[in-house]
Design goal:
There is one protein chain. The protein contains five helices and nine strands; from the N terminus they run H-E-H-E-E-H-E-E-H-E-E-H-E-E. With about 220 residues, the protein is an alpha+beta fold. Strands 1, 3, 4, 5, 6, 8 and 9 form a seven-stranded antiparallel sheet that branches. It has a two-stranded antiparallel sheet with strand order 2-7.
């Protein structure tokens, strides 16, 4: 599998052209969540090795419900079984737009429990059985209708990306970063125990700066 993180960025760390489509919950309208994401990102900026990260713009804050296709990852196991490997990505997005015609999903009342801070994302999981079952139902619908069944389908970790680690940390940096993660996890556990979801969209993107709800 190609190094997708590397392909998402230019050498200077700016976002590169990286088109595709996916099903997400855009979260940047949630005031309380964004308050803590801004706090977390400010803490990243204080790291002496901050230059190894690129932070996620506010308009890109989202939780992926199920991954779809990236133009630069055309391996058969990460593509749809229903369409050719060489189909242009804009045509793929239009095809999915027809196949996934239930979106947007509104008033879903799904709740995600905040687990803690990962390397570059807030880790979350369904907070109750109702939320778990609804997410499974949506993921199964998308998988069936879009013809996708990725190798990580059964182990996918729900998360909210606050940035991307572009350059690996050395041993000394990792020790410092572990303390950084623990500090942020404590902040989250004390202040942001769960996140409510009431809208899910099929979206397209040109890069990692924004996930735009598909319009027919």
């Amino acid at each position: 599998m190609p190094n997708l993180t590397k392909l998402k960025f230019k050498e200077n760390g700016d976002f590169a052209y990286f088109p595709g489509n996916t099903v997400v919950v855009n979260l940047y309208h949630q005031e309380k969540l964004m308050k803590y994401i801004n706090i977390i990102q400010d803490e990243y900026r204080k790291l002496p090795f901050y230059n190894k990260f690129t932070l996620t713009p506010n308009k890109s804050i989202h939780m992926t419900v199920i991954e779809l296709l990236c133009d630069k990852n055309r391996l058969p196991e990460y593509w749809s079984k229903d369409i050719p490997l060489d189909m242009p990505i804009d045509e793929v997005s239009d095809y999915f737009g027809k196949k996934l015609d239930i979106f947007p999903l509104l008033n879903e009342d799904i709740e995600m429990e905040v687990i803690g801070m990962g390397v570059q994302n807030i880790l979350v999981k369904p907070a109750n059985e109702k939320s778990l079952n609804r997410l499974k139902e949506i993921r199964n619908y998308v998988s069936k209708n879009a013809g996708v069944d990725f190798p990580n389908s059964d182990t996918y970790q729900f998360h909210i990306s606050i940035g991307y680690l572009r350059i690996p940390l050395n041993e000394e940096e990792q020790l410092l970063f572990d303390n950084h993660k623990n500090k942020i996890t404590k902040l989250l556990n004390e202040n942001l125990k769960s996140i409510k979801i009431n809208r899910i969209d099929y979206t397209t993107f040109k890069d990692m700066t924004q996930f735009i709800p598909y319009e027919k």
